[in-house]
Amino acid sequence: MDNLTATAALPPTDNTIPPLPDYTSTPLPPIILTIPDAYLALALPIIAYWVVSLFFHLIDTYDLFPSYRLHTPAELLKRNHVSRWEVFRDVILQQVVQTFVGMLLTLTEEDAIVGKQDYDIAIWAQRIRIAQRAVPTVLALVGLDAQGLAKNVADSSSSLVGVLMGGQYPWLTQTYMQNGIQMSAPAFADWEMLAAKAIYWVGIPALQFLCAILIVDTWQYFWHRGMHMNKWLYTTFHSRHHRLYVPYAYGALYNHPVEGFLLDTLGAGIAYLVTCMTTRQSMWFFTLSTIKTVDDHCGYALPWDPLQHLTSNNAGYHDVHHQSWGIKTNFSQPFFTFWDRLLGTRWTGGDVSLRYERARTAAQKKVDADKKDTASSVTHTNPSESANADIRPYQDEKAVRLSDQLQQRLKPTVPAGKATLQALGSREQVLEDQQGGGVSVLVKETREEEKEEAQQSWLRRSPRKMAAQRSRAGSGASSLMGLRDRVNERLVGSCVTGPGKEQP
């Protein structure tokens, strides 16, 4: 696009309105020289989606904030009806579709230009000057004399005098050249230019963003609600998204391709076109909308996450909708909840903590049952296999929590490394089998091992040493009983207690 120079029109016949300035427009250079802004606007939401998703995935993987989880890892494992690979695949498909549609939109847009900003600001300044003509009339309606007020404030504020006089500023003038002749014309007051700049740079973009948010919220609410109320729409399209009873970050856009196009791609495109956003404005809007959507599905109620507090529509609010008991409530997404409040679809069932607790307990029981039902096979019998294999399957929470004294007492005499972890993992199964004896079994096994060692070495001992050994055996029994009690206290209910003690 070539540079375009425009000359201001002749001064208006009304000698109270300043003329518009000349301007020269040039093509707007891209933010990144090798990438057009239109393509960058398509790439940024996808980049933001996976960056934010990776952030929450790392929190999940390393269990960094367990106290702020909405669901436990057991629920994530047992309650969802779709694999992570299927979620990843469908999200990529939706992002390909939205990129294709975005590229089609770029073909209909004109190239962005720069250099006309001062001209556009001056237009708003003219509108402000014209609007001031109504001030005397409005004051007269309430019984005030604009001219009298102007005289009273003449010494303190010349700008206020001009406003009270209906936008007349005879003392403000400027000069300009017309056909080689220097001409004089009215000028704008400083406050008029400041107000015009605020409207141009802040007010209009804010209004565009607000309107776009309202369009997206309205579009998604009624399509979303319709897909729940219409059986065919739900079973054909939307039920796929609800295979995630326990949402996680990168599952935010896990949808049927048709639903993804209707709800997300088309809705955002309409908001963009209706509000006449620029390409760079769309970068902000689409990227922030994407981050908000991912955050609403992250599965965490982080107190320091600003998106959790900007509106009441957050991860906790939307998570209720993903539960079987709240699936026909809380349809609003992704910004505000006013449609749910106005149309009576907001969750009104009260406190949900007990419902969440029941779901956690049920999922954990399924995991525990799987552990008990799964038969362990002997693997990695060769030293090379044992050295190269992953040790994590043999690491268990209870074995790691065992005290040093308990590990020294109960740890089997096997080579260090994977074999030790395997043995400790096996003992976890014993500890979990409360009806089968739990820690009492390990204590009894240790007693038997010590008795066997004593019997094998008695021939090598003198009668005096044998008497001492019998004495130590008696005290060893009591020490083992004390060990059992200490283990029970350490595990705090994870194992069965000894005879005569009640589990807290």
Sheet-strand content, in percent, reads: under 5%
Number of helices: 21
The major β-sheet equals: 3 strands, antiparallel
Poorly predicted sequence stretches spanning 5 or more consecutive residues: 375-383, 389-438, 476-480, 486-504
**How much is the radius of gyration in Å?**
37 Å
| Mean pLDDT figure | 78
End-to-end distance? 79 Å
Percent helix, as a range, is: 55-70%
Strand order of the largest sheet: 1-2-3
Shape: elongated
Topology pattern, helix = H, strand = E: EEHHHEHHHHEEHHHHHHHHHHHHHH
Q: Which class do the helix and strand fractions yield?
A: mainly alpha
The total beta strand count reads 5
Question: Can you give a write-up of this model?
Answer:
This protein has 504 residues and is mainly α. Helices cover 58% and strands 4% of the residues. It is built from 21 helices and five strands. It has helices at residues 37-62, 73-78, 84-106, 117-131, 135-141, 146-152, 158-164, 190-229, 231-236, 257-274, 279-296, 307-310, 315-321, 338-343, 353-373, 383-388, 397-401, 404-410, 418-432, 439-457, 463-491, and strands at residues 4-6, 23-27, 113-114, 173-178, 181-186. The strands form two sheets. It has a three-stranded antiparallel sheet with strand order 1-2-3. Strands 4-5 form a two-stranded antiparallel ribbon. α3 packs parallel to α10 (257-274) and α20 (439-457) packs antiparallel against α21 (463-491).
Write the layout of secondary structure elements.
Blueprint: E1 4-6, E2 23-27, H1 37-62, H2 73-78, H3 84-106, E3 113-114, H4 117-131, H5 135-141, H6 146-152, H7 158-164, E4 173-178, E5 181-186, H8 190-229, H9 231-236, H10 257-274, H11 279-296, H12 307-310, H13 315-321, H14 338-343, H15 353-373, H16 383-388, H17 397-401, H18 404-410, H19 418-432, H20 439-457, H21 463-491
Antiparallel strand pairs: 1-2, 2-3, 4-5
